[in-house]
Amino acid sequence: MPITIRDVREHELDSVLALNNAAGPSILPMDAAKVRFFWEHAEYFRVAEQDGLITGFLVALSQDAPHDSPNFLWFRERYERFLYVDRIVIARPRRGGGRGRAFYADVQSFAEPRWPQLCCEVFLQSGNDPALLFHGSFGFREVGQQVMAGTEIRVAMLMKEMCSHAYVAQAYGDKLPDQPWLRARALPGRAPSRATGT
């Protein structure tokens, strides 16, 4: 069956939480309050669905989110506007099937009309070279490193310039065409937006 990438639904948050916490040491655990925070504040919060099951998800937040992640704050101290990929999780039995690449193609398509940069980090640990290679193949480059506060985890801070953003911003300002693929996620308390993120 085909893989569908779509916005998460509120009743699926428990499934997202379980998937995250079964992902292994390369993904930080989270609790119900954190997944609810993402539901309320993430500009991009989509799942991969196949055969009626959620097999992965990706969460990304704009620079304006009230997020306390040290890696998010690292970017906010240095860059004015960006979309930050907080986490991508693929169910262990479904890894290697192209879901990660599909998510990154989708989040890039979502980000490019709205933000000049797409950011994330990768843990610099033994055996994590495939994650660095994966991001490099999408055009991300390292813009710094840090050790996460309260841990001994060193991370590479990665960024990708959204090369079409300047053109879109100049041509459309804060009013993107009213097309389904350009519609932003409706955050609780906020109507769906077509704005470029300015």
Automatic annotation (TrEMBL):
TM ranges:
none
Question: One short Pfam family name for this protein?
Answer: Acetyltransf_1
According to the entry, every stretch annotated as the N-acetyltransferase domain falls at: 3-164
Q: Name one GO molecular function term.
A: acyltransferase activity, transferring groups other than amino-acyl groups
Keywords, comma-separated and alphabetical: Transferase
Cross-referenced PROSITE patterns = GNAT
Protein name as it appears in the record: GNAT family N-acetyltransferase
What organism is listed for this UniProt entry? Arenimonas terrae
